[in-house]
Amino acid sequence: MPAADVVSVLVPVAVAAPYSYRVPSGMAVAPGDIVEVPLGTRDVVGVVWDDPADGTVGHNRLRPISGKFEVPPLSAEIRGFVDWVANYTLTARGMVLRMVLRAPGALMPEAPVAGVRFTGDMPERLTAARQRVLEHCGDGRAWSKSGLAGVSGVSPGVVQGLVEAGALEVVAMPASALGPEPDPAHGAVALTEEQGLAAAELRAAVEANAYSVTLLDGVTGSGKTEVYFEAVAEALKRGRQVLILIPEIALTADFLDRFALRFGARPAEWHSEVAPRIRERVWRNVALGRAKVVVGARSALFLPFRDLGLIVVDEEHDLAYKQEERVFYNARDMAVVRAHRAGFPVVLSSATPSIESRVNAEAGRYRRIVLAGRYAAAVLPSIAAIDMRRDQPERGRFLSPPLVKAVAETISEKQQALLFLNRRGYAPLTLCRTCGHRFQCPNCSTWLVEHRFRGVLLCHHCGHSEKRPATCPNCGSTESLTAVGPGVERLAEEVGERFPGAHVIVMSSDLAGGVERMRREFAAIAKGEADIVIGTQLVAKGHNFPLLTLVGVVDGDLGLAFGDMRSAERTFQLLSQVTGRAGRAGGASRALVQTFDPDHPVIGAIVSGDREAFYAKEIEARRAAQLPPFGRLAALVVSGPDRASAQTHAQALRRAAVADPLIMVLGPAEAPLAVVRGRHRFRLLVHAARNADVQGYLRAWLAALPAPKGNVRVQVDIDPQSFL
Description:
This protein is of the alpha/beta class. 30% of the residues lie in helices and 23% in strands. It folds into five domains: 3-101, 3-Layer(aba) Sandwich (GIY-YIG endonuclease); 113-173; 193-371, Rossmann fold; 382-423 and 486-619, Rossmann fold (3-Layer(aba) Sandwich), CATH 3.40.50.300; 631-718, Alpha-Beta Plaits (2-Layer Sandwich), CATH 3.30.70. The strands form eight sheets. It has a seven-stranded parallel sheet with strand order 10-11-9-12-15-8-16, with helices on both faces. It has a six-stranded parallel sheet with strand order 17-27-26-18-25-24, sandwiched between helices. The chain has a five-stranded antiparallel sheet with strand order 2-1-4-3-5. The model has no long low-confidence stretch (mean pLDDT 89).
């Protein structure tokens, strides 16, 4: 059998290398072609890969390719990207490919949809509504009934009436079109001098048609979005595709509206809330090059773009870009990798850039553009700390007198106040005052959070839920259960008692109604339909509330309680972002931060507004400790169905570690979250010099031990963000 008749096919399962398959007579395939192949007892989707076929497999053992899909092949760029990500993250290549083939239904031809087209015959009765419809379809183009009715401002019944009158005929039309293409010349806005210079630099980066990374570092409200929209417009003028990554699904509605105002059409969406049928259409149109702009979550990075020419990573510092399931990767870093491999620019945008991005900019690896002032009449809020040691709340309350007074003054002036507390639910702990019993998750080593609105105790790690009992299950005492600590629901209860006439909206990701409810309530806040907003970190990300003039941070110390290397950075970013929600539409505004440690460097940096001093100190601390980005980290998480099996394998793993002058292995130690979803966890941490071959070291280390037994798993996390 000729060698050309045998090819390698990578399948989207946990395999490190492709399998060899026989090409049937009459079928021609090449690397990148998407095919169907037998795997075990079933047929699966696979991709013809670049690896040479295994010549050691006997001809009689080779199984044939079952079929070939009539879709564009995966480009050499995306195939190489899959290989690179798998190698960097120490993940099976098949699992990375799985993220590319996220919409298998897109591989099948989409059935045509019924549309209507003008026949040339005018109806006997021509009303104003009918006239508007005919004006839009008089050129003979086919329209969907709903689309034609919408653009004409009429009911679907008017369109149907024209069909019955013979003026419109029903025709089959392709279903693959997502809508009109964005127009780079539509809705261009006047930029300030500072914004104009920044936009010119970004346009130049796109014009160069070469790899570059630009850090767009602008204070909250400085117009970063409008600036990088100019880079998007330039890419569209050149016929290139654009990917815009955003960290939160809840942000998409507002962002899509802003995009439509600027470009006259909405971009394609890609995230978990998009219906499967729409996701299939987006995938197909991306592969065909028809979807010019995609706005999506981190997984959008693995879409098979035909001609990607620009990636924008909005809120590049956000933790949501780190995936910690199956394939552990940081979408921000992988966006830079994809841009570098394909030779196009990437823009990282943030008001509080990550330490890694700042250091790369200072080292000259990234270009840094600074937007120091807010747009138009907007000014940054004045920020002050409330010392909770002096201004203590009343017993059982959580708002200090100065903050209560400030809220009262704000709403009396018909302006909005935001109270920020990054804790979902009613209270983080429920205990019995009689016996001290605490409600703990049966599957995780964590307390159950009370959600009073739903009447349940909930685990935020595994989703375990149980009804809040009336009596203590340990001692049987009645009326002895008490909530300890505040969540946003408890804060809403206090606000309702203090300000009974105020309209209060609570923003939290776990409230009933999901994403659609959040989008409605964000819109209501923007319209001024709320007096007081109470929210978690959701409210800190990119939202514009024109009437918001007061931000109250209920617990400024909360993020500082975590003892990892990024706790100060994360707290600074979060508090900077949330306090920056105030005063974006102009006028005087203020932010008050409740804290028990007003002298803490992070609190001091927030109050003073001296972000550069904070970054300088934090960067120097990282450099002294040789922590990222001046050193490298990798985490190995060993988990098992019981503590003994996990600990035994973790200890064996540690003993097998080979000494290396550039690498230090720490652990194993029981994870801070020792049990998650019923699995016991131990962690090892690899601390290496920047020039160390961490992946090579880990690959050899793991290969030296037999595969884990007894349902024990080892997860490798390169560049970990979480240490729990």
